[in-house]
Structures are given as structure tokens and as C-alpha cells.
Design goal:
296 residues, alpha+beta, Rossmann fold, Tumour Suppressor Smad4, six-stranded antiparallel beta sheet, 19% helix
Length: 296
């Protein structure tokens, strides 16, 4: 990897500074970089003269890999933006959790050197595709159907072909990819799913029935969604970032996208290491100092 695209979330504090630092390291290591025109304006003069200025939509014709600087929200945006290309996506965390953007600032120099020397892994992640009203929307984590203005419950009917799977009377329903299983779905009681699993998860949001539980289905199923809402409208939200109003007459088709997202990972870390480090999964509570809430 010798040509690197730097995708920066300017609204995230420290993201531009992190990209400037990374650009300096990459150029010193012999790589070429490209940055969006509105971002490169913030770069120091000695770097501007050595960096290509390109809109993100043209990164594919220049770069071998894209590094996203921000948080997990930045990674979600970048995943949709570059999913149609063959560009691997590496996330540098300038936010809080950094579950998707798993590379930390304190390891940046080592991580960039490893990337240029080929010491990393690339994993393929599922992308969802929703079609409604002539529009096609993609989601990396999940697509959510939820009530819009009213506080009353909505009923979400989910079917495969002509066969009804369930009618969920609840605050809403989440259709999550394995990657999204550790996001909104998890906070609603959904299971953690290993990213390589060829499945989707349907997770109800505060269902009005004790029998309604998260359901794992093969990702080969095409789902048809219809929503009944008391005030006539609900909303569909993709990755918490793209929102559409949904009426009773709308039939939303959801399927696994034919394109995937390529994510750059540490060469020697597993998904289970990430769970333990980021979510404290399976950590022994006795390993914490109760006075500081810090692990011993």
C-alpha cells in the first residue's frame, strides 16, 4: 500500500490534527496521500505541496486504501461512501468507544508502518440494502423502523416472500448486520454475532409482549417490511444517519447488498480481543479496583 486516501470528519475534535500527523508519517515512509479539498486547507504549507487534493468520490482512482479519522459514526459514513469501490477502510479513533475505528492515536506511527509493509488483515463485512419509493439506501450497522412523533406503539410487519415472519407491536424494530449486533441492537437485548456469520438479526425495541425476542435469520432472506403507525407515519433510519418517513402504504424491501465493506484490522487481534478491550466482555469484575473503576 503506497497510495493512501485520508478521509476526515472535520466536526470531530482532533480529527484534522490526527490526519495531519498521519500524513507527515506516511510521506516520510514514502507513501503518497490524497485529502479532500476542504480538509487540505487546514494542512501546513509544507504538506500541502506534497498531497493530492481530491473529492472523496474520486479516492478510488488514486488510493489503495482509505484511512478514516473520527469515531464510529465516521466509519459508518465512510463504509457507505466507499462500499462500491474495492478500497479497504482503516479507522483511526478520535472519538470515544472506537469499536469500528479500532486503531488508536497512541499506536498511529506503528499502525501506519504496518499498513505500508502489509502487516494487517482485511475482513469483509456485510452491508444492508433497503429499497423504498424508488430509493436505495445502504446501511453498515442496521436499519431501524421506529415511531415518529407519537408516543404510541407501532406495528411492524416483517415477511419473507409471501410468508409472515412476525408482526412486532413495539416502539420499533432493528434489522442488524453482524457488525451492527454490537451497536443499537445490543442495547435492546440483541445477541453479539461474530462478524463473519452469514446472518441478520431482527431485534424488537421495547416490545409489548414477553414472547417477542431477537430472531437470527439467514442473510439470504429478502425481507418485506410494512409499518402501521397510529398517526399514519413512522420512520426508517439507516445507521442512525439517514432518515426517511414511512407510511402504511410503503413496502420496504431489505436484503444483503451485493457489495461488501472491506475493513482493515490488526494483524494479530481477533474479534474476541476487541470485545474484551472495548466492551469489557467476559472481564472478571474482581479485576477492577472499586475505588477507581480501573482494571488492576
Amino acid at each position: 500500500m503506497k497510495s493512501i486516501g485520508l478521509y476526515v470528519n472535520p466536526e470531530r475534535n482532533g480529527a484534522v490534527q490526527a490526519a495531519i500527523h498521519a500524513a507527515g508519517i506516511l510521506i516520510e515512509l514514502g507513501a503518497e496521500c490524497c485529502v479532500e479539498p476542504e480538509i487540505i486547507k487546514a494542512f501546513p504549507e509544507h504538506l500541502i505541496s506534497t498531497i493530492h487534493s481530491l473529492p472523496a468520490s474520486e479516492f478510488e482512482r488514486f488510493a489503495d486504501l482509505v484511512i478514516a479519522f473520527g469515531g464510529d459514526g465516521t466509519m459508518l459514513t465512510a463504509a457507505r461512501l466507499f462500499s462500491g469501490s474495492d478500497l479497504p477502510l482503516m479507522g483511526v479513533n478520535v472519538g470515544r468507544l472506537g469499536f469500528l475505528a479500532e486503531f488508536n492515536l497512541d499506536e498511529l506511527s506503528t499502525a501506519l508502518s504496518d499498513v505500508l509493509s502489509g502487516d494487517y488483515r482485511i475482513v469483509d463485512r456485510t452491508l444492508l440494502e433497503a429499497q423504498v419509493g424508488g430509493k436505495t439506501i445502504h446501511a453498515f450497522n442496521e436499519i431501524v423502523f421506529e415511531k415518529k412523533e407519537s408516543s404510541r406503539l407501532i406495528t411492524t410487519h416483517i415477511a419473507h416472500q409471501q410468508y409472515l415472519i412476525a408482526s412486532y407491536r413495539a416502539d420499533g424494530v432493528i434489522i442488524a448486520t453482524p457488525t451492527g449486533s454490537t451497536a443499537y441492537s445490543l442495547s435492546c437485548g440483541g445477541p453479539i454475532i461474530t462478524p463473519s456469520s452469514a446472518v441478520l438479526c431482527i431485534t424488537p425495541i421495547s416490545p409489548h409482549s414477553l414472547t417477542m425476542r431477537p430472531l437470527i435469520i439467514p442473510d439470504t432472506l429478502e425481507l418485506t417490511i410494512r409499518v402501521d403507525a397510529p398517526d399514519g407515519e413512522a420512520r426508517m433510519v439507516a445507521d442512525g444517519q439517514i432518515e426517511l418517513s414511512i407510511s402504511k402504504q410503503d413496502h420496504v424491501l431489505i436484503r444483503r447488498s451485493s457489495t461488501q465493506v472491506k475493513i482493515v484490522k490488526h494483524a494479530d487481534n481477533t474479534f474476541f480481543d476487541l470485545l474484551r478491550n472495548k466492551l469489557l466482555w467476559s472481564v472478571d469484575p474482581s479485576a477492577f479496583d472499586q475505588s477507581t473503576d480501573e482494571p488492576h
